[in-house]
Write a structure and sequence with these properties.
Blueprint (H helix, E strand, L loop, with lengths): L1 E11 L9 E4 L3 E9 L11 H13 L20 E11 L2 E11 L3 E6 L2 E2 L5 H11 L4 H7 L1 E3 L11 H11 L3 H73 L8 H48 L15 H126 L4 H23 L4 E5 L5 E5 L4 E2 L6 H22 L2 E3 L1 E5 L8 H18 L2 E5 L13 E7 L2 E5 L6
Parallel strand pairs: 1-12, 3-14, 3-15, 8-13, 13-14
Antiparallel strand pairs: 1-2, 1-4, 4-5, 5-6, 6-7, 9-10, 10-11, 15-16
Length: 601
Amino acid sequence: MKYVTFKRLTVKNFLSVGEENVEITFPTGLNIITGYNKDKADRRNGVGKSTIADAIFFSIYGITIRDIKKDNIPNNITSGKTEVSIEFDVKQDSIITEYKITRLLNPSKCFIYKNDVDITRDSINNTTKFVSDLISSSPEVFQNCVIMTINNTVPFMGKKKLDKRKFIEGILNLEMFSTMLTSCRTEYNEIQRDFNIECGKYEATSNQIQSIESQRNNQRSSVDKRKAELANRLSSNDSEIETLKKKSQISIDKSISEYNNIVNKYESALTTCNDKKDSLKNETYIINANINTLRVKLKSIETGTICPSCHQPISTHTHEKLTQEKVDVESNISSDINKLNDIEIRLQKAAAVEDTLRSNITKTQCIINEQAIKLKEKDGILSRLNQLEQWNKEIISDIEDTKTQIDTFDKMSDDLNSNLQQVQLDINKIKTKIALLDVVKFIVSEEGVKSYIVKKILQLLNSRLAYYLKQMDSNCVCVFNEYFEEQIIDDKGKVLSYFNFSGAEKKNIDLACLFAFMDIRRMQGDVAFNFNIYDELFDSSLDERGVELVIDILNERVDKYNECIMVISHRKESQKLATGEVIFLEKSNGVTTRVMNVSDI
């Protein structure tokens, strides 16, 4: 069991509270929160009494009971920084831990301290969730079991059926079953979707297997026909290859390059021969020129008067010398003629050699051309051979592919059958899960363990409710069944609706439910709080006798549970009812402050 003891509330610049801190403690007893509005003479409304309830709720959950927008929470007169702090102890297993929560606005911040050590979470939302888990109470349960604000809280009996169920589950700590049921239904729906998917897979795989079997049979027929065609083409190609191989056997003595080398040698020799002829012809030109010169000289000797050698008159020379010179000239002419004859013979030989060389070049070139043609033919044959051999490889590959195609269909069929078996196993597993979840769903449903638990504590709940209705001198009895459906019977035995009763009668039922739920929460829940706050409990619906009866119940709770009970009231006479403190608030110029010396007022 966890005990939460609230010790101190500090409020600043929150709603009507201004810069001056309003501090509230939580003493045991019946404490009255009242006040006076100086801004409106003779009025006790609008003082800021309900601000205390809102401040407590805001400090814990970061929101107000009246659902005020955060922008409207800071005091619009002082325009100061909003700061609300609450201090409390948590006792569990005889260990007491001190906590303090501080909330700020503009900017929004939230801090929580454990034994003066900052344990604030990484975000305001996470910190608020931590606080809610720490005190084991949701905002809805806290608002209906700890704080009762008559003007802002829908009474339990006035709630919708779903909201009633949610609230009572919170009181009895049964939310886990609703959470489990929601989780179970979610998982059930997901598994059901998986089941439908797997069934779809099973049907699709079965259809695929049938289709593959049909395709495989058709493929076998096509493959056999295709293999026969390919075998015929392969045989025809092999015959042509053998024929072409024989044709490709060409006898060649020398390569074309070797013959080209021979031609180059012939052409080189031909060039040498031509050069020699040119040289001999040049010699001939020189000799002929020399002969012509000698002949002119000889003629000059025979007919002239001037010596061609010394250019002296011939008479001055001797006859013998001229004769000898004539003989020498004629000898030289004869020698040059012999040289010309020899050169002519050599030119004829060179011409013969030239003809031979040219003939050899022509013959060799013819051989080269013939060999080129043969080689081209051979290249064509070899190209055809390569083509045929490549075609044969492709044919052999095609034959292998035809086998692979059948193997592929066999493998696809085997894989699909394997998949079908796996899908069937998955379907069986899912069926088992679905069956299990069906059981779990029933267990955590309204008809299952929750109903069993409720039945166990239903007698206690109805007993406490009957007790408080009797204490309130109510003219009806209210009974809940295991589905949290109430039945209200008046003093005449007639079953009525909650809305058939008057305001005061409904208030009696509301208070009886509130007190009963608080008792159940304390006895069956895992947390107890040291205080309760009631807003305008004495100010509406209840007559004087009703107020007396409620006060008796409150004082009984103070004595029994050592509680701090705070009642917000604008009735001046309600101060006399206090057994604890009178928390007197005063509003002046739109700002609420606490007046500590009540006797002066």
